[in-house]
Structures are given as C-alpha cells and as structure tokens.
Amino acid sequence: MEIGIIGGGAVGLLMAHYLGKRNKVTLYVRRSEQMELVNELGVGLGGTSDTVKVEARLIEDLSHHDLTFVCVKQNHLKGLMPVLEEIGDEETLVFLQNGMGHLERIRKLSSAVMVGVTEHGALKTADYSVRHTGKGVIRLASMEKSSNVDRLMEQLNQDHFPFIAERDYYHMLAKKLVVNAVINPLTALFEVRNGQLLENPFIHDLALGLCREACQVLKLDFAAEWENTERVARATAANYSSMYKDISACRPSEIEAITGYLLAETDTLPIHSFIYQAIKAKEFERRKEGHHG
Ligand code: KPL
C-alpha cells in the first residue's frame, strides 16, 4: 500500500518507521533540514539499529496515496487545511489529533475521513529517529457509516504495531479526551511523569476531580473512564505527556483543544477552569523565560 504520513513529530516518525517496513511510505515534513536527513538516513528506532528507508517531502508537495495519516497537533491543523482541501475529496484521510474541536472541519474534506487515537509512548530523539517508549495500539474509526475500516486493519496490522477498528468514533475520541484532560495538564503543571499522577495523593485527588467533571460533560461513565485513565497512566508511567514536553520546550500546548474544548461545552467545571488558567499562566512564564534565555 502507498501511505502518506503528514507530520515529522514523534507520532509521525513512529508510524513512518513501522508502516515503512511493509508499505511504500512518504513522510511529509515542514522543514527541509528534516526532509534531507530522513531521505539520507531513513527513520530509525532510537536505542536500536533498526532503520527503515522512507521518502520524505515537504508538506506543500503533498500528493495522492492509498491512505494518508495526518499526525500534526491540533494547533497546526488549521494551517494545513488548504493543502488538504487541494488533495481532493476522494482521498482516505486519517486524523490522529488529541481533542475534538476539529471534527466538523475535517469531515468536510473528503468522503473517506477517519479518526484515530494512539496509545503509544513515543519520544523524538532526532529529526530522523524516535524512541518507542511505551508499546500501545492505534484505534481507528470511520466518520462515515459505510466504510472499509476492517479491510484496512488487515493491511496495517503488525505484531509490534497493532491497529484496532472501533465502531463509534465519537465515543472513542471522548474516551481519549478524558485521558488527555486528566493526564496532560496535571503532568505539565506539576512537572511529573505520567505514573506519578497515581503515586502523589494530592495530584491523584485532582485527577479524580478532573475525570469526574470531564465525564459529566461528555456523558461517560465515571468508574469506567477512571479505570481507563489509570490504565493509560500505568502503561505510560515512565513517559512525560505531550503537554509537559510542549510547555518545557516553550511550544504552545494543546490546552485549548483539550481542556478548552470541555470548557466551551459548559461553564460549570471549576477544577478544569482552574487548571486551564494555571496552564495558561505556566505557558506564559515559560515563553517569557524562553525569550530571555
Ligand atoms: O496522549 C498522551 C499524551 O501525552 O498526549 C498520553 C496518553 C497522556 C500519553 O502520554
């Protein structure tokens, strides 16, 4: 299969590495330095000598593939829309973003739009290398009623990189949103790894409160979602969340797409409102420090 992967971050590199073992993969990136490095060195799995040859191109040169994964963060999706609109409405596009605010926009792009969530831990160690820090799965669901998700699963699935088909895309994204709305801001705020959320009794209490409020908005069962959040925190215990990494690196975080999405749904979420303000304040301070140092 010919697969396009848009985004040269940790998730894009991880997918390019594994899917490139069995398919013809083209990785689309923003910077020409990264393009040149990937074309020269392939995409390596950090800490191993396992490298896969992958073709890299710049995002503005996006062309047709059997399937294209969009692995950029929500913050970069808006800027990508003109390129995606040009690619045509028959392209199979799979969006792997945290949050849910993008659904209406992406649905209009093609008659074959899918969404996915990744439960892998991944750390970008260089422009051409990614460390697989937590083995998980990628769940995919179609936004259309009639779709070929099952056939696609057979083609994508591999032992060390499994895919699971989900029937209800909204439910799948809502469950992931709860996990992200609990783990990401708390780990970023208190500068801890995902596993410490369960070990520190004070952070643990905040996590419970955030989970309860998120479940109220999204109409999910609290006990089931808390169990799921604990499972993810345990499976990725040694990792730093993407929000922790973004804020530490003075990059804009996904707080708007995650907590901001919940707050836009209702104005009665006191713990999320507080955490949102605290993350905004932290981002502001980090960026000020970044500019000066
Ligand atoms: O998706 C994640 C993220 O960091 O964005 C989790 C599941 C919290 C893993 O770190």
UniProtKB/TrEMBL annotation:
Q: Give the superkingdom in one word.
A: Bacteria
Molecular function GO terms recorded:
2-dehydropantoate 2-reductase activity; NADP binding
EC number annotated for this UniProt entry: 1.1.1.169
One record GO biological process: pantothenate biosynthetic process
Reactions it catalyzes: (R)-pantoate + NADP(+) = 2-dehydropantoate + NADPH + H(+)
The segment(s) forming the Ketopantoate reductase N-terminal domain are 3-143
Q: Tell me the keywords, alphabetical order.
A: NADP, Oxidoreductase, Pantothenate biosynthesis
Ketopantoate reductase C-terminal domain sequence ranges: 171-283
Pathway involvement? Cofactor biosynthesis; (R)-pantothenate biosynthesis; (R)-pantoate from 3-methyl-2-oxobutanoate: step 2/2
What is the protein name stated in its UniProt record?
A: 2-dehydropantoate 2-reductase
Pfam families noted in UniProt: ApbA, ApbA_C
Source organism (scientific name): Thalassobacillus cyri
Enzyme group, top EC level? oxidoreductase
